[in-house]
Amino acid sequence: MSDQQAADLIDEGEKSGIYTLTRSSGGSATIDNVVPQGEEPEVITAAFGQGPPDDTVDFRIIGVVTDSINDALQEAGYTDLGALSEADIDDLTHLTSTLTESRAEAIVAEAKQHVPVGHTLAERAASYYAQRSNPASGVGEARVTDLTNITETVGEPRYLSKGWDAGDERGMYVSDVGRNTTKPVPTGLHILDNPDYPGVPKAETHPDASYDALPVGEDGAVIPPAVPIDPRLQLPLDELIAKKLARGLVPIRVVGPRGSGKNYLIKYLCHKTNRGYQSIDVDRATEPEDLFGPLVPDGDVIIPRNGAVKQGLINGDTIVINEFPVMQAGAAIALHRLLNEGTLLVKSHGELVEPHPSARLIITMNPPTREYRDSEPMNSATRGRFRSFEQPYIQDIDEEVETLYPQVNGDTEVVDRTTLKRIVRFAHKTRENENWPTLSTRNLTILCEHIEDGASPKAATKNELWAVAEPNQYPEDAHETLNDIL
């Protein structure tokens, strides 16, 4: 082939993540970290002829498999990576003198990473489809819930139903994650006694779980968030928010960059305390009737119809209003009485609503930085009514790795800890350089999803950089640092 064909082929392979390149000071390229993908390129076939068919899987793509172990596995009857991923550890141990139990465990774990993900995705989709099917017909169907028809209220505080003292720690949220792992802190936020209340965030293993369910770890418990420390108050954020929620209908404002886990933390607190979680996204067109409900005709009379905020207050939900500052001033001001006195005056309805005693209100917003230049500044009169906290990205690399690892891996290891730590380290570099696209914790979960789909870690990282880049940012500026880390 010509020099140009070879150069184009090398560049194409690097861009698609089939391999990575290292370059000498003279500019010559050396291929390393080869991860073959797809069919052999036509230019190779044209130059060297069609390669002989080979139905034997080369298990040496697994890091710990040597030539002798590869031969032994094939002689033992393992014909593909799927069969190897389901192998019994005892059956593999001692197939050769170097195949120890720990090495056998590593082989089975890595083999699972190489099994095509399509079958797993099909099983997940089938499970979700079954959950959303009509029990009588077995046919999938949409579900439309009229919020005004949900008149069930949240449960009672557990200390009441159990006959405990109100200060009994068994009946309250105890912060035992992040910095408080070794020395748990009781917060006073009571746990309610009805975990089956419709609004309580569900674990992904729950029969009524949906795509927004909370992930669980190997022990079956919901994976806790990586809890950052508020940079000024110097206390863990879950502890701070829980203590404010324990004070009653005290309005809370959480400020943090996109994908830093604001909503996940609140959902986690609601899950742990069996509280209804009502998330509402607002925009510039949001008006008071969108929050509280319009007036609608009913025969010859006009009657009020409850909106999400009003109904949530009646039912005792924890209401989270996202991107609060972008609302019209009139919509925000309509909440002032609720923020000040804990009662909601709906002028158009002619109603004064005294919320359920378990009702809570939290707003979230992005920080007023260049990256979020489209965000509106918050009215100072409204801002002063909130207890405000900052939720930054996780500052500690190891802590973010330990939080992400169970979320992105589940039953099968998609990304090993070493690779994940390198990805997280690079993400922290993007958060420190305002000229680069920023990779949030949420972006890292998407990035690992691409790896599960078959992309190499470096290709997945480059794709996510491109996906989040602002018009004035160039992802390629970060590639040199990425090559050094990953």
UniProtKB/TrEMBL annotation:
Signal peptide, first to last residue: none
Gene3D superfamilies: 5' to 3' exonuclease, C-terminal subdomain, P-loop containing nucleotide triphosphate hydrolases
UniProt cross-references to InterPro entries, sorted A to Z: ATPase_dyneun-rel_AAA, P-loop_NTPase
Superkingdom, natural source: Archaea
ATPase dynein-related AAA domain sequence ranges: 254-386
Protein name: AAA family ATPase
Organism in which the protein naturally occurs: Haloarcula saliterrae
